[in-house]
Each structure stands twice: as structure tokens, then as C-alpha cells.
Design goal:
- The protein is of the alpha+beta class and about 325 residues long.
- The strands form 3 sheets. An 8-stranded mixed sheet has the order 4-3-5-6-7-8-9-10, with helices on both faces.
- α1 packs antiparallel against α2.
- It is globular and about 60 Å long.
- The structure holds 6-O-phosphono-alpha-D-fructofuranose.
- The site of 6-O-phosphono-alpha-D-fructofuranose has 9 residues, from α6.
């Protein structure tokens, strides 16, 4: 079968929409470019101590910032500022949103976690970039506003992630299914490798930091007991990499559930709504799975703050149903 590159795939899909102006296509290409640059430097992170190691600072989350977090953040901002289709960004690594003075007529805003799971870099475990795209609601010709970013997840125009692991893969949706593209380093192109990804409605894998067990609700504790029960069925496998992108990617392809409930340390949950849970929830629903906060669809949550957190249960529909009211 002939290789189909990401650019070709985007162009083919744009042709299906005569009304499309090509702006979203251009934006996706620019995100793909930024990820190739991040990928290049990740692969030598262990050697270039100028990049590896701590940036001697903490971010708005109070988390230690690795130099590669900062590097990935700056690359994404630079590529999106040059994109022409993006009027502003919000990032896990930025206290507030960044409006692009030179892009007041651009149509989209992008929110991203530039390097999710970056604490894994030092141990060469997978990390990822997560992105979420909304059409702006403020008038073109002006600077974007906070309201452009604080939109509910069901309004996303596109969402996706890049996983930097044993290979590098970009997975995205624009609301017409989920497709995965593996980076072919010899030609520097993402090539279609996982067309129309769908998540099995059931699978015997769960993914969570079980070290927080004592602070879970009774509902979560009984779910864990169900997973571990091997008397009446085969017990589930617990798989937890400590990088949401990697755990999510496995479950998206093979089925399973990733859960990060409220804990005593994170009473509102640990994962961020706008640039972790919303994009992953869009992808998961497009792949026939589900994503809730235990009470409602993640995509229905009305955001109030850029960095707000939420409990998250995401993956195979039958497993998410077991944890949702
Ligand atoms: P814990 C990484 O910091 C992250 O946001 C997710 O990628 C990951 O799944 C989770 O936090 C890990 O959190 O508390 O288990 O270390």
C-alpha cells in the first residue's frame, strides 16, 4: 500500500469539505512540524545536558520545569505564531494565555501541554505533546481574549497528541474519526499507520496510580477490587507509565481505562481540563469510547479557569460506565 503522508491525508480530507478554507489544515501541519523539532531534540536528551536537567524554576502548576518542557513550549509557541492560522495560545507552562499581536485576523486558538509526563524523560520513558484547537469567538481583527480559550470541550475544532516513544506517532481528530500517523525518520514525514482508530468497548486493563488508594471514594475502591478479583473472572492487568499520553494511547488502541480520581492531595483531580482531559476526551469519544469526571461528560464541563483540574475516567465505554453516576 502506498504511504499516505499527514499532509496528503489532511489535503484529501479538506477536499471533502468544499467550504473548508484550509486554515485548520495549515494549523495541523504546523503542529506536526513543531512536534518533529521536539522529537529531534528528545532523542538526544540524554546526551545534551544543555537541554536535559532542571530549568531551576517551577511553573504555574508548582511543578519543577525540565529544560525540555521549556524547549518544547517555546518551539510550539514559535511554530504557532508563525502559522498564520493561530491568534493565540494557552499552555500548561504559561501562567496566562498568549495573544499573538501579529495574528489578529487568525481564526483559531490552540491550547497545549507541550511535554506531558516530562518527569519520565530522565528515565527514557514515553512522553507526549497534547493539543486542543478551538475556533475563536472574539471578533477577528482584535487580540484574542480569555473567553476564546474557556470554551467547553464539545466545541473543539480539532484535538490530538504526539507520543514520543519507541516510535513517534501523531494522533488527531477533527470530529470525523481518529487517525494515527507514524513518523518515518528517513523521510521526515508522518505517514498514515492507524486509520480510523476505534477503542474496544471492554478490555481487562486499568491504568491508575494505585498509591492513592486510601483516599479514593468507595466507588473507586470497589472498582479496583473488581479489577483485582480473579475468583470469578481473569483479574485485570494494571498498567501505569506515569505519562497520560502513553497510558491513554495504549487504551485507545487496545481498550482499557485510565483513571485519575480526586485524591487527598488533588481534591479536584490532578489532570488539567483544558489541555489534557478535553483533547483526550474528544479523541476518545470519536473512537467510540467515553470520558467523564464521574458525574458528567468531560466535554460538557463549562470551564472557569485556564488551568483548572478535573477527575477523569476515560477509555472503553463499559468500564467508564462502571465509574460514572
Ligand atoms: P502521578 C504527568 O505529570 C501527569 O499529568 C500525567 O501525564 C500522568 O498520568 C500523571 O500526571 C501522573 O501523576 O500522581 O501518578 O505521578
Amino acid at each position: 500500500m502506498r504511504l499516505i503522508t499527514l499532509d496528503e491525508f489532511i489535503a484529501i480530507n479538506q477536499e471533502k469539505h468544499p467550504e473548508a478554507t484550509g486554515e485548520l489544515s495549515g494549523l495541523l501541519r504546523d503542529i506536526g512540524l513543531a512536534s518533529k523539532i521536539v522529537n529531534r531534540d528528545l532523542s538526544k536528551a540524554g546526551l545534551v545536558d544543555a537541554i536535559l536537567g532542571d530549568a531551576e524554576k517551577t511553573n504555574v502548576q508548582g511543578e519543577e520545569v525540565k529544560k525540555l518542557d521549556e524547549f518544547a513550549n517555546n518551539i510550539l509557541i514559535k511554530c504557532l505564531k508563525n502559522s498564520g492560522e493561530c491568534c493565540g495560545i494557552a499552555s500548561e507552562e504559561e501562567d496566562s494565555f498568549v495573544a499573538f499581536e501579529n495574528r489578529k485576523n487568525a481564526k483559531y486558538v490552540v491550547l497545549f501541554d507541550p511535554l506531558d509526563g516530562s518527569s519520565n524523560i530522565d528515565v527514557i520513558a514515553p512522553v507526549g505533546t497534547i493539543f486542543s484547537v478551538f475556533e475563536r469567538i472574539s471578533p477577528k481583527g482584535e487580540l484574542c481574549t480569555l473567553e476564546d480559550f474557556l470554551q467547553p470541550g464539545y466545541k473543539q475544532a480539532a484535538a490530538g497528541y504526539v507520543i514520543y516513544g519507541s516510535s513517534t506517532m501523531l494522533v488527531y481528530t477533527t470530529g470525523e474519526g481518529v487517525n494515527g500517523f507514524t513518523l518515518e525518520p528517513s523521510i521526515g514525514e508522518y505517514c498514515l499507520s492507524h486509520p480510523n482508530i476505534t477503542t474496544p468497548e471492554m478490555a481487562k486493563t486499568y491504568s491508575m496510580n494505585q498509591g492513592n488508594f486510601n483516599s479514593f471514594s468507595d466507588k473507586v475502591k470497589s472498582f479496583v477490587a473488581y479489577c483485582q478479583d480473579g475468583t470469578t473472572k481473569k483479574a485485570f492487568s494494571l498498567r501505569y507509565i506515569g505519562s497520560m499520553v502513553a497510558d491513554f494511547h495504549r487504551d485507545l488502541l487496545k481498550g482499557g481505562i485510565y483513571l485519575y480520581p480526586s485524591t487527598s492531595d488533588a481534591p479536584k483531580g490532578k489532570l488539567r481540563l483544558m489541555y489534557e482531559c478535553n483533547p483526550m476526551a474528544f479523541l476518545q469519544e470519536q473512537a467510540n469510547g467515553k470520558a467523564t469526571d464521574g458525574k458528567q461528560r468531560i466535554l460538557d464541563i463549562i470551564p472557569t479557569e485556564l488551568h483548572q483540574r478535573t477527575p477523569v475516567y476515560i477509555g472503553s465505554s463499559k468500564l467508564v460506565d462502571m465509574l460514572s453516576e
